[in-house]
Amino acid sequence: MDRPNYITPAGYSTLKAEYDALFGGERPKLVETIAWAAGNGDRSENGDYIYGRKRLREIDRRLGWLSKRMKAAKVVDPAMQEDRTRIFFGATVTVADEDDNHRILTLVGDDETDAGNGLIGWNAPLARALRGATTGDLRRVTLPGGEREYEVIAVTYP
């Protein structure tokens, strides 16, 4: 990983909660079910055993991914940002496009993005274009739909 995995404290706790739920809850129950199913004899036609092993591989893969992301995480609290006039990690930004459509976006870690709720990843094209901007700045960004220009209307932090 060549760049730090910035994440908010809330995003990190979400990753940790998912890890704990899988590792401490779902995985032990599944191992118990697999052991029970293995004890029933023929495993080649044992649906509980076959499905359980498949699900266990999925859980282990997800646990590995979560573990790597949490290990690489650099937790940054946006509330501690000193320069609140510029757009940095964790900023909530109101932007207007060329058609005067306003959008409210929050720049968060790539693991906590949710575009439908206005949470865009720190490394997304629009977020990269907005970094360092202040109220009144115009920023041009190339998106899949073409090139757009955005004006920064407001910058706030929690």
TrEMBL record:
Keywords: DNA-binding, Elongation factor, Protein biosynthesis, Transcription, Transcription regulation. Gene3D superfamilies: Transcription elongation factor, GreA/GreB, C-terminal domain, Transcription elongation factor, GreA/GreB, N-terminal domain. The keyword Protein biosynthesis applies. It comes from the Bacteria. Residues 5-75 form the Transcription elongation factor GreA/GreB N-terminal domain. InterPro entries: GreA/GreB_C_sf, Tscrpt_elong_fac_GreA/B, Tscrpt_elong_fac_GreA/B_C, Tscrpt_elong_fac_GreA/B_fam, Tscrpt_elong_fac_GreA/B_N, Tscrpt_elong_fac_GreA/B_N_sf, Tscrpt_elong_fac_GreB. One of its GO terms (molecular function) is translation elongation factor activity. The keyword Hydrolase does not apply. Necessary for efficient RNA polymerase transcription elongation past template-encoded arresting sites. The arresting sites in DNA have the property of trapping a certain fraction of elongating RNA polymerases that pass through, resulting in locked ternary complexes. Cleavage of the nascent transcript by cleavage factors such as GreA or GreB allows the resumption of elongation from the new 3'terminus. GreB releases sequences of up to 9 nucleotides in length. NCBIfam families: greB, PRK01885.1. Belongs to the GreA/GreB family. GreB subfamily. PANTHER family: TRANSCRIPTION ELONGATION FACTOR GREA, TRANSCRIPTION ELONGATION FACTOR GREB. This is Transcription elongation factor GreB. It comes from Sphingomonas gei. The gene is greB.
